[in-house]
Every structure is written in C-alpha cells, then in structure tokens.
Write a structure and sequence with these properties.
Elements (H helix, E strand, L loop, with lengths): L9 H11 L6 H13 L1 E8 L2 H13 L5 E4 L12 H7 L4 H13 L3 E7 L10 E3 L5 E3 L9 H12 L5 E9 L11 H6 L7 H11 L4 E4 L3 E2 H11 L7 H24 L6 H9 L2 H11 L3 H18 L5 H18 L2 E4 L1 H13 L1 E6 L6 H11 L6 E5 L7 H7 L2 E4 L7 H17 L3 E2 L18 H15 L6 E10 L5 H8 L9 H10 L6 E6 L5 H12 L13 H22 L1 E2 L1 H11 L5 E2 H17 L3 E2 L14 H14 L3 E3 L18 E3 L5 H8 L7 H17 L7 E2 H14 L12 H14 L3 E3 L4 E4 L3 H13 L1 H13 L10 H17 L11 H14 L3 E3 L2 E3 L7 H12 L3
Parallel strand pairs: 1-3, 1-6, 2-3, 9-15, 10-13, 10-14, 11-12, 11-13, 16-18
Antiparallel strand pairs: 4-5, 6-7, 6-8, 14-15, 17-20, 19-20, 21-23, 22-23, 24-25
Helix pairs in contact: 5-6, 6-10, 10-15, 11-18, 12-13, 12-18, 13-18, 18-19, 22-23, 24-25, 24-26, 24-27, 28-29, 28-31, 32-33, 32-34, 32-35, 33-34
Length: 899
C-alpha cells in the first residue's frame, strides 16, 4: 500500500505555482508514464543531478496524479525537506549505503523513485562528498562525475527477486533552447557546460527560461526484459553485474540523449570552425586545385573567394532572435490569419524521426510566409528549427539579417557560370547534413503563382542526396528522412502581385518597400492557414520501389551498385514522390472549397442554398479521393459533413477582399447597397476577381485531374450530340483522347509515375463507374451515368480544368504571330496575353482565369513536344509543317475539340 502523499511546504508551494505551472506537458509523456505504471514500478531516470529537475518532476507527478517520487539520490537535504521535516533529522548523517538501503525499501514497497545518473563537474563546486556516520567528510575519488552505478545495481538486484517488472522511464527537462556547444569556454569550466550544468548554471538557466521549459520522456527500459535478453545473448549465463550496470547505464544515457537531441538538435560549432571545415572539404579543395592549377597564390585567392561566398551564404541561428521573431509573429500572424491548423499526428511522426535521424523538410512554396511558418511551428513544438535555403534576393537589409538568425542561408537562383560557387553550396550543405542539422528547401524552386505545385527542380535535392549517400558510405548510422509538407492558405498575402504577374505584369524585386507593403497588407484578413505532413521517405525506400518495379518478384534491397543512371533515377523518383505526397496530404480549406464551387457552377450567379449544395457535392467527391479536410471545414474527417458556418465565413473572406459581389433580390439597383452572406444572398464573381479565386481553387485541382482527363472528352461528346445522358464513346477512342490530353498537360499537372497509362486509365474508369459517374455497355462504349448526381460529378471534373483547356486554345491562336518570324518566349507570351484578352471579351472563352501567363507558357512547352513549335537561338519558331495560317488554325482546332 502506497504511503500518504506529502504536500510541499508553503514556500515550495509558491515556487511550484509561480514557476512550474507554465510547463507544457506533452500528453504522450503522461501517457507513457501511466502505461509504465500499469505494468510495474516506475523509476524516473534523469541524466545529470539537478534539484530544479527534481522539483519540476515532483510538481508534475502531483498535478497529473502520476506515481510520486519516494526516493531521489544525491540531492542536498533541503531539497528533500518537502517530504516532511522528520526526513531532515533522519537524513543528516546518511551514507551512500543508507541511501541504497532506502532505495531498496522503496522498490520493495512498490513505490517510485528518481535516479540521477551523473553529477556534472565544475570548478566552483567541490567533488562529491561522502559522510561516514560519526566520521569526517571524505572526498570520493571520481572522474569528475558521480555515476549512478550503485543505484542501478540495486535496481537489478531488486528486479531479480520480484515478478513484476521495474520500468526505468528516461526524463529530459530542457531549460534552454541554446544548442549544446562543441567548444567549451571559461564559463563552462566554472559553471559546467549547458549540457551538464552545475548548480549555479542550473539556477541561471531556470530563471532565464522557466516559461519555455520542455519535458520529454524516452522509451521505458523494462529491467526484467533487459535481464532476460542479456541471459539469452550470453547463452544462459549472466555477464556479471558490472557489465549489466554498464550496459544498462549506456542504454539509459542513449535514450536520454535521443530525447534531448530531438529538442535541441546537433551541437553548435563556432562559426569560424564550421567555415574552416567547409572550405577544407576534399571535394571543394579538389575543385579549387582544378581551377587554380599548380599556382599556390591562385589557390589562396580561390580559397578566400570561397570563404567570402560562405560568409554571404551561411545561417547564424540565434535562439534569442528566434524568440523575438516568434513574439513579433504573434503581432502579425494573428492579424493576418484567423487560425492556424496543423497535422498533429504528422508532427508526432516527424518528432520521432528527429530523435534518430536527420530531417530534410520539403514544403510546398506558395508565399514568403512559408519561410516563417515551419520555423515557428518547430520552435513552438520544441523541435530543432530547420536551416532554410532562401533566395539571395531576400538577403536585403533589414529582412536578411532577421531571416539569417532565424535559420535562413542565402543562395543564388542559378549557379551557372560559377563552378566555385556551386562547389561551396555543395560543401556547405554536406557539412550541415553530416552534422545533423535539419534542412529545409523548396523543391519547386520558386513560389507558385497559380496555387498548384510547380514541377520539381532537382539541383539542391541532388546535392542533399549525394551528401546523404556520402555520410552512409562514411559509416554514419543516422537515417536521412525526406519530409513532404503541404502549406495551405485560403488567401496568400502576395495575391495582388501574383494576379499582376499572371496577367502579364513583370515580377517586382523584393526590397524594403516591398517589406513595408507586406506589413501594411498584414492589416487584412487571409483566412486560415494549415500545415500537413506526408509520409516520411528514405533513400533506401525509394531504391526498393525502383527495384521492385524493375523486377516485381524482387523484395527490394538487392544490393545493386549505385550507378550514375540509377542514382539519377533515384533523385528523380524521390522528387516526384515528394510532390505526389504533398498533393495527397493537401487539406481542403473552406476558401478552396468555396472558390471551386464559385468558379465551376457555370452560371452568372449562385444562391447561397445552391452554393452550399455544390460545396457538399464537392466534399463528397473529395472524400471519395481520401482527401484531407481542415477541422474548420468538417467536424469528422471520416464522415465529413460541411460546417455551414465555414462556407459563410469563406464568403465573408472573399467579400472583404472584393472577390465576390453579394446581391439580395428585391434591393433597389444602383443605390450602392451591399448584401451580406447568408440564406437570401446571391453571389456573383466579377471577371477581374476570377484569377484571385483561381489561386484558391488550384489548391485542390490535382484531386480532379485523373478523372478530368476522361470527363473532358465525355462531356464534349455529350455536348456535341446534345444528349442529356451523354453520347456514347468507344473505350479505345476515349483512351486515345484521354492519353492525348494527358500528354498535352504534362507541364501543367503531375500525373502518377508508378504505373502505365493503360493501368491508370482502367483504374480510373472502374472507380468512376463504381461512383455512378459513367456507364459501360457490353460493346465497351462509355457514356455519362444515369443519375443526376453522377452526371454532375463528371461535369464538375471537366469544369475544374476547363480554364486550362481554354488557356491552351489562347496559346494555340497566338502562334499566328510566328508567321512573321521567330519570337522569344517572353515576347510570344506577351502576344498570347493580348490574344487571350480579346478572346475573352469576344465571348470565345468563358473563363477569365484562362488568360494566365504561366498557363500559356506551359502550353508552348507542350507544343514543342507535340511538334507544333520549334526552337532556334532561344526563340520559338513554327516548323515547316505548321508554317501557314491554315495549319496553325488546325492546332487551335485540335485543342478546342476537347470543349
């Protein structure tokens, strides 16, 4: 029977209330301790002696009704005073032998204890003292630390004499976010290093960071299972208590360090030492020798140039700056966004991976806010903040120094023409990865202006893959995890600038003026933002996928040599797996849902009730695709029911931005009255606002693409035959049309790369039939489904991507400009924008968002692959077979036939 719980004295109770109630406790910690308690006796294990850790642990076990500590080794007696004043007199003359006996009695009674494994050394603190009862104080011989060996030996002996297990639960309190240092100074010698602080430094860290403490629990060690495993591994013979204690201590310290590293990341090196290691790296030195030849002076010059490049590039993470930036974000992010939703389960997976591996974060890139979001999320979640690759266009004052101290390192957009610079970037990223720093960069290269993902750029990814492979060859056991991340917005801050660029305007260079304009835009409301994490990928896993596809009977991991071709295939596969994962986990937001409904209903305006019905239909469709939904949109993701308030709030968001007009029938016309979203409202999207809504809609466009390749030919056939149920189309012809459309849109959308077109087409056709969207007869003909719900779904698939088809029509018609001679891509795109504007005003196309510069530029790339366009001297030309006005018109006719 457990003894009655003790209560702290008034002074200690005040300390508990004042300093420890702010400790944010991860429910996983309490759950892990409770699970251990259900199995046996819990012993809390802490790495280094700290009375502050003990007091915090004592407070938390009381607050959360967890097993309470009845013994703690090596603490000063006044720390144990809250256990009752009777303890004070009883413990004044206790020896280590008495403490061991007390621990044994505690365990025999089934009570919990706290064990500190080490006592950190410092010059201002004397070595450990043992007091013999009635005798003089004796200095214990030690290596600078008091090991917990005697207490672990007692735990082992107690376990041998009982059936129920003793669970050693590692506990880590992190009182400072400053990373451990690889180089110690005089302060460390006096007060103990950060990772092994003495009493004085412990108090200093506590007072400076008590509001930001982090608590983690490691995987418990079942002492009974540990002993049984040791017996099995030694052929039924015990290896001896000394060996068992040493191995158990190592196991516990490793798990404690694992948890600590999961919070702080790798040890921080002095900046000059890191630069020296980068510049001296063998690969960089080889390139310097190749460029300089035999001249020593030339080598020194190139070495200094490399050092200068590194200084311009490097990150200088400062926890104090991170804290200040976090506080500043509280004043801006909260004003910009009405909520921040993130994938808690995904973040937990990332946290586990961070303990044993190195993270490479690969988020989508839609806004400059992306640079802040993950850093802020990791900082607040007590994870090591990533070092972020940022374009050197953001290194201007004052933004550059702020981002640099928040973990940004600045690199050029292109390394072409500067071999040395590329080698410095390679060496720097290799060193960061080898040291274990989490890295973050954007596979898309730049921000997406359209809302959908851009094709991946492989440059930085190839460097990181090389670094990971090199570390593995060098004997490193740490895995490298590639983490796909989707960052979603209902509205992006740069929306106006993006619309200007989409309609042909030039991109403006980032500067202080742009920073001030962005700060001014923070006064607006941009809805909610959300972060979703995809499946963590490894190089080994990607290689196994490639091997299994090459040889289906293979189990993967065949040990094939990594040839240059196989390595390139691995990098490419990894890039597209990441992009597919980002698309898969992208969460549907209220803004994206309402924007999709507003742009695809096909009428002049839409009433609120119909808008709700359309949104509910879209959610049913997306639910069938296993899409994720933000908590603000649906209550139960497994059975998604749209929140009506979410639709109204999205309409209010777009109304404030000027993206929709709200009309109430019966109100006088021309009096300047504005309606409000609600049951009586009708919504109309002004033509000039369609591009803004299209950015929101494109957040989810990828979900519809596969079925749209089938829906577009089917709806075109139905429209041509003027049949309500849809004209029948031969399966072979439908497959031909769908494949041609897929090839046309190869630069626009990302299609599956893990199966052949025929396999994907068949699977998609089967799924559409199962959902009642299509019918197939015995002859193999395909037509629209009979139910209105099924037909509406097919029409939805087609209308979601209709603007892209119309954009390619614009691009096709603009090719007539080449009849007069070659044009640069920039000039041809400018001509296409003018052509598109005329086509929209003349009513030849429906969607104003079709007049989009990225769309027509992608169309030109596809036309080159189709043979409609050629290139010479960096300019577009018409091939001889399409060099007349009549043949150019056939290109437009082929595209328009899909409508």
């Amino acid at each position: 029977m457990k003894p009655t719980s003790y209560e702290p004295n008034p002074a200690l109770a005040w300390v508990y209330h004042r300093f420890f109630e702010h400790i944010g406790v991860d429910e996983a910690w309490a759950g892990r301790v409770r699970e251990a308690e259900s199995r046996g006796t819990v012993i809390y294990v802490l790495r280094n002696l700290s009375f502050v850790d003990f007091l915090a642990l004592d407070y938390l076990t009381k607050r959360l009704h967890l097993p309470q500590v009845r013994f703690a080794n090596d603490l000063g007696l006044w720390v144990l005073e809250p256990m009752g004043r009777g303890w004070l007199s009883a413990l004044r003359s206790r020896t280590e032998t008495d403490d061991i006996a007390h621990l044994r009695a505690t365990l025999d009674g089934g009570h919990s204890a706290a064990l500190f494994l080490k006592r950190p050394p410092s010059l201002l603190e004397p070595p450990p003292i043992a007091r013999q009862r009635g005798g003089p104080a004796l200095a214990l011989p030690s290596r600078g630390k008091t090991e917990g060996d005697a207490y672990l030996r007692t735990v082992i002996e107690a376990q041998r004499q009982r059936e129920t297990p003793i669970l050693l639960v590692p506990q880590v309190f992190v009182w400072t976010r400053h990373a451990d240092a690889t180089k110690h100074n005089a302060v460390d010698a006096l007060f103990g290093p950060r990772e092994w602080p003495g009493k004085i430094r412990t108090v200093m860290q506590f007072l400076a960071n008590w509001r930001h403490v982090t608590l983690r629990a490691g995987e418990p060690v079942d002492v009974r299972a540990f002993l049984e495993q040791e017996l099995r591994e030694n052929g039924g013979k015990s290896p001896g208590d000394d060996v068992l204690v040493r191995r158990l201590s190592y196991t516990l310290l490793r798990r404690l360090e694992r948890e600590r590293r999961g919070v702080l990341g790798p040890a921080k090196k002095p900046a000059d030492r890191l630069r020296d290691q980068v510049v001296r790296s063998p690969r960089l030195q080889k390139i310097i020798r190749d460029m300089a030849g035999e001249g020593e002076a030339e080598r020194r010059v190139l070495g200094f140039r490399a050092l200068s490049m590194l200084r311009e590039m490097e990150a200088q993470v400062d926890p104090n700056a991170l804290r200040a930036l976090d506080a500043a974000c509280d004043q801006t992010i909260d004003r910009m966004y009405s909520g921040f939703e993130f994938d808690t389960e995904g973040l937990a997976r990332v946290r586990e991976a961070a303990k044993d591996g190195t993270l490479v974060l690969l988020p989508s890139h839609k806004s400059h806010i992306d640079y802040i979001i993950l850093t802020r999320l990791f900082f607040r979640s007590n994870l090591p903040v990533p070092l972020v690759a940022a374009g050197d266009n953001l290194s201007f004052f004052p933004l550059g120094p702020i981002l640099r101290r928040a973990g940004a390192y600045f690199i050029r957009r292109s390394f072409k023409g500067d071999r040395l610079y590329g080698a410095v970037v390679d060496a720097y990223m290799r060193r960061l990865l080898k040291d274990g720093w989490p890295l973050e960069f954007f596979l898309e290269g730049g921000r997406s202006r359209t809302g959908k993902l851009l094709p991946p750029k492989l440059g930085l990814l190839s460097i990181v893959v090389d670094a990971a492979l090199g570390a593995k060859e060098g004997g490193s056991t740490r895995k490298v995890y590639f983490v796909p991340i989707s960052i979603g917005y209902e509205r992006v801050v740069e929306e106006r600038a993006y619309v200007r660029e989409l309609t042909g305007g030039e991109k403006q260079k980032e500067d202080v003026g742009g920073l001030l304009r962005a700060a001014e835009s923070a006064l607006g409301r941009y809805g909610r933002l959300n972060v979703q994490f995809g499946e963590l990928l490894t190089l080994e896993g990607v290689l196994d996928e490639i091997d299994r596809e090459a040889s289906p009977s293979s189990k993967g991991g065949s040990g094939k040599p990594l040839t240059p071709a196989r390595r390139r295939a691995m990098v490419t596969r990894l890039a597209y797996r990441v992009m597919n994962e980002i698309n898969r986990v992208t969460a549907v937001t209220p803004g994206a849902l309402v924007a999709t409904a507003l742009l695809t209903h096909g009428k002049r305006g839409i009433g609120h009730a119909e808008l709700v019905a359309v949104c509910e239909r879209i959610v049913r469709v997306l639910s069938g695709f296993d899409a994720r939904f933000t908590p603000s949109l649906v209550e139960n993701p497994k059975n998604p029911v749209v929140r009506r308030t979410a639709i109204r709030e999205a309409c209010e968001l777009f109304l404030k931005a000027g993206h929709i007009e709200v009309h109430t029938p019966g109100d006088p016309v021309g009096e300047g009255r504005k309606g409000f979203p609600g049951p009586d409202a009708f919504y109309v999207v002004p033509d000039v606002a369609r591009l803004s809504l299209d950015i929101a809609k494109n957040l989810v466009v990828h979900f519809f693409v596969s079925r749209a390749m089938i829906a577009i030919p089917l709806t075109a056939r139905a429209a041509a035959e003027h049949t309500a149920n849809g004209g029948a189309m031969d399966r072979a012809l439908l497959a031909e049309r769908a494949q041609a459309l897929s090839k046309l849109f190869k630069y626009e959308f990302q299609f599956r790369a893990d199966a052949t077109f025929e396999t994907i087409f068949t699977e998609t056709l089967d799924a559409m039939e199962a959902d009642g969207e299509i019918l197939r007869d015995e002859a193999g003909n395909v037509r629209l489904g009979r139910s209105s719900e099924g037909r509406e779904r097919v029409i939805l698939h087609a209308r979601v991507v209709r603007s892209f088809v119309e954009g390619y029509m614009i691009a096709a018609r603009s090719l007539t400009a080449l009849l007069k001679g070659p044009l640069s891509p920039k000039d041809l795109a400018k001509r296409a924008m003018n052509v598109g504007e005329r086509m929209f005003l003349a009513g030849e196309i429906e969607a104003r968002e079709a007049v989009s510069r990225p769309v027509v530029e992608n169309a030109f790339l596809a036309f080159v692959d189709q043979g409609y366009l050629g290139r010479t001297d960096g300019k577009y030309i018409l091939p001889e077979s399409y060099a007349t006005a009549e043949t150019v018109r056939t290109i437009e006719a082929r595209v328009s036939s899909y409508l």
